[in-house]
Design a protein that fits this description.
The protein is of the alpha/beta class. It is 35% helix and 21% strand. The chain has helices at residues 27-50, 70-85, 186-190, 269-286, 305-308, 311-325, 345-350, 354-367, 369-380, 387-396, 401-426, and strands spanning 5-10, 55-59, 89-93, 113-115, 122-127, 133-139, 164-169, 196-200, 206-209, 213-216, 232-238, 244-250, 254-262, 291-299, 330-337. Helix 1 (27-50) packs parallel to helix 2 (70-85).
Length: 427
């Protein structure tokens, strides 16, 4: 049996992370973005105090760079001192972004903070607020940025603790979206004998296993358009019977989102703009006080498809939204058109026309990879000698052709059908 306790698991704070590509972002939002990692850190502290957790584990990448900024160090120290006043301990490991060999100020950490070294796995006791032993916390920091050996191999639980929490900054099961630092397998972690693996490095929160728990909390603040959705930490409650209950708490101050809307039933650009504005307003209503950075994706079929092929139309719609919607706390940073022409393909398959024959040709090429490669090669042969385009063709040839066929069919048939429709209107 163990003493009931609760702790926060967070990772990948990336304090003072730069936000690039913001030339068109309003100054007010730009400032909010630049300060967002610090705002998320303050929310982490406030959550720990309000929820009266016993301790916090931070599983690496507290800073964004090995040579961490003085601003980030001082602000983190300030938050740790706030936690000290409330009797909340903090356990820290460092990862690939903030290895121990990075430049740092000579600051004295408060007594409530334990920073694990990089020579080998270490462990420390974690106590409840009433002074009773809650768990042993284990960890090992990165000595340098590129740690490619399996650190988990050196982790072993000790005796005489009611619960065992292992902190590890690494890539479990070879997530290809992230660097292969401290690689290990889930099977290996499950067999180690720990009760909870507090992971860091992967920015998307994932519960890889329960009992024992193997958990990525994700980062506390999304930093780019790929890091969409709520970002934050887990509050973990452990009962006397070792039952584990996890509650996700969002901490982000700026949230990256994607939203889809259909062009079906829309006849004019004005109709589309109104639907875009409604979508932006809905995103504002659904936020929980965060500023929203959103990408809107246009989907579906409709008569507007052939107009949305023109990048000038997309750019104009985007400018209209940006002029009117940051006042609602929403910034639309991109509109992407993934619409399809308003074509009845089953009819086109049987149609005795040039358009019908073109469609049937694309279907034959789709079914015959060799024929399509030959057709595609002939179509782009004049580009092969171009210095830049030729290199792109050589590097990406294996993956592009099928997508080219689909895009070419959509573009060509859409233009032909639109042309026929316009001529019929004129008649």
């Amino acid at each position: 049996m163990t003493i009931p306790f609760r702790f926060i698991h967070a990772a990948d704070l990336h304090l003072d992370s730069p936000f690039r590509g913001m030339s068109k972002v309003p100054n007010e939002l730009k400032e909010k973005l630049m300060a967002s990692t610090f705002g998320a850190l303050r929310r982490l502290t406030e959550t720990a105090i309000q929820e009266q957790v016993d301790f916090i584990v931070l599983s690496g990448d507290l800073y964004d760079e090995a040579d961490r900024s003085l601003k980030a160090q001082l602000l983190l120290l300030k938050e740790w001192e706030r936690l000290q006043k409330h009797g909340i301990a903090v356990f820290v490991i460092h990862g690939n972004h903030d290895p121990l060999n990075g430049a740092r100020a000579d600051l004295k950490l408060p007594s409530n903070v334990t920073q694990f070294g990089s020579d080998q796995m270490e462990y420390r006791p974690a106590y409840c607020r009433n002074g009773e032993l809650a768990a042993f916390v284990y960890g090992m920091s990165y000595a340098r940025r590129h740690v490619t050996e399996n650190l988990a191999a050196g982790y072993f639980p000790q005796s005489d603790a009611p619960f065992h929490i292992a902190m590890l900054h690494g890539n479990v099961n070879g997530d290809e979206a992230h660097d292969p630092y401290a690689p290990c397998s889930l099977e290996e972690l499950l067999g180690k004998g720990f009760d909870y693996w507090a992971l860091g490095h992967i920015h998307t929160r994932k519960v890889l296993h329960e009992y024992p728990h193997v958990v990525y909390p994700g980062n506390i603040q999304g930093r780019n358009p790929r890091e969409t959705g709520a970002r934050g930490c887990y509050i973990v409650e452990v009962s006397a019977a070792h039952a584990v209950q996890m509650t996700f708490v969002p901490l982000d101050e700026v949230r990256w989102l994607e939203a889809e809307l259909s062009i079906a039933g829309l006849d004019t650009e004005q109709d589309l703009l109104m639907r875009l504005e409604d979508t932006a307003e809905q995103l504002s209503l659904e936020s929980s006080g965060q500023a929203i950075m959103a990408r809107l994706q246009l989907k579906g079929q409709g008569p507007l498809h052939h107009k949305l092929i023109d990048p000038v139309i997309i750019r104009t719609l985007l400018e209209q939204l940006q002029d009117s919607h940051f006042t609602h706390g929403v910034w639309i940073y991109a509109i992407e058109a993934g619409t399809t022409a308003n074509i009845e393909l089953s009819v086109l398959q049987e149609e005795d026309s040039f358009t019908g024959e073109l469609y049937r040709l694309t279907k034959r090429l789709e079914a015959d990879r060799e024929a399509w490669n030959k057709e595609a090669a002939a179509a782009v042969v004049t580009l092969a000698g171009h210095a830049k385009l030729g290199r792109i063709l050589r590097e990406q040839w294996d993956e592009l052709p099928e997508r080219w066929l689909e895009q070419a069919r959509e573009l060509t048939l859409g233009m032909l059908v639109a042309d026929v429709t316009e001529r019929r209107k004129e008649e």
